[in-house]
Design a protein that fits this description.
It is built from five helices and eight strands, in the order αββαββααβαβββ. It has helices spanning about 1-40, 75-95, 140-145, 150-155, 170-195; strands at about 45-55, 60-70, 100-110, 125-135, 160-165, 200-210, 210-215, 235-245. It has three domains: about 1-40; about 45-55 and about 170-245, Protein of unknown function (DUF541), domain 1 (Translation Initiation Factor IF3, 2-Layer Sandwich), CATH 3.30.110; about 60-165, Alpha-Beta Plaits (2-Layer Sandwich), CATH 3.30.70. The radius of gyration is 37 Å and the shape is elongated. With about 250 residues, it is an alpha+beta fold. This is SIMPL domain-containing protein.
């Protein structure tokens, strides 16, 4: 009887030992697998690819604002009308067509002069403000005319604002070619990094196109700028792509 108990105990201990060894081996295999998985997961490289094009804007928008103030609406309006004729004449002398010149805004405001105590002092003042816009595809002609805008002052135009914006409208025509070039440049950067590290470039994991920006040709780079135009017709289109590659 005692012998059977000892034999059973030996068998039980042997089974426990085998089970423990199995757990140890499984744990090692699992741990090693996780380690290799994490190692593979972190064997990546993030690279950026840039593509740029120098372009010339193909649309110019020039808005000129002017006003006049007085106490009689008829005389104030008459002065503003004369200034409007002078602005239109200036544009026409510069060679622009009448259908490129548009009245875009006119406002009338009232103000009451007061004395130091806040009491009315004198008649009410009327101010008429007006704005005329030139919109044309002849950007070089616009640039030349803008350099001569002092002529408007000599013609009696009381300028309150004069702003010209040059816009490149054919961005969509450039996008496919520029994205492809940026991706190729990113791939070359990844290959160079891999070569320096003694590994190979694997498959692409993630990619982000980024923003297209249109800025002054000689200005600072701006990855997140918009493309609404600028103060110079000579511009630069830029896009940056960000790509993650596996490293084998």
């Amino acid at each position: 009887m005692i012998q059977k108990l000892q034999d059973s105990r030996a068998v039980l201990l042997g089974a426990v030992a085998i089970f423990a060894l199995g757990l140890t081996s499984s744990g090692y295999a699992l741990g090693d697998g996780l380690r290799r998985y994490k190692l593979a997961e972190h064997r990546t490289v993030t690279v950026r690819g840039v593509s740029e094009r120098d372009v010339t804007a193909d649309l110019a928008t020039w808005s000129i604002g002017f006003s006049y103030q007085g106490t009689e609406l008829a005389s104030v309006q008459g002065s503003v009308d004369q200034q409007a004729r002078s602005v239109r004449a200036f544009f026409q002398r510069a060679g622009f067509k009448s259908d490129e010149i548009t009245d875009v805004d006119v406002t009338l405001s009232h103000s009451q002069p007061t004395d130091r105590y806040g009491a009315p002092a004198g008649p009410q003042l009327l101010t008429v403000s007006r704005s005329i816009q030139l919109r044309t595809n002849d950007v070089m002609k616009t640039r030349a005319a803008y350099a001569r805008q002092a002529e408007l002052l000599r013609d009696g135009v009381e300028l309150s604002s004069s702003n010209v914006t040059y816009t490149f409208t054919k961005l969509n025509d450039l996008k496919p070619e520029m994205i492809a070039e940026a991706n190729q440049n990113a791939r070359r950067s990844a290959q160079q990094f891999a070569s320096d590290s003694g590994v190979a470039v694997g498959k692409l994991k993630t990619a982000s196109q980024g923003y297209f920006s249109v800025g002054a040709r000689d200005g600072e780079d701006c990855d997140d700028c918009g493309s609404s135009g600028g103060s110079s017709p000579f511009q630069k289109v830029r896009v940056v792509t960000t790509i993650d590659y596996d490293l084998g």
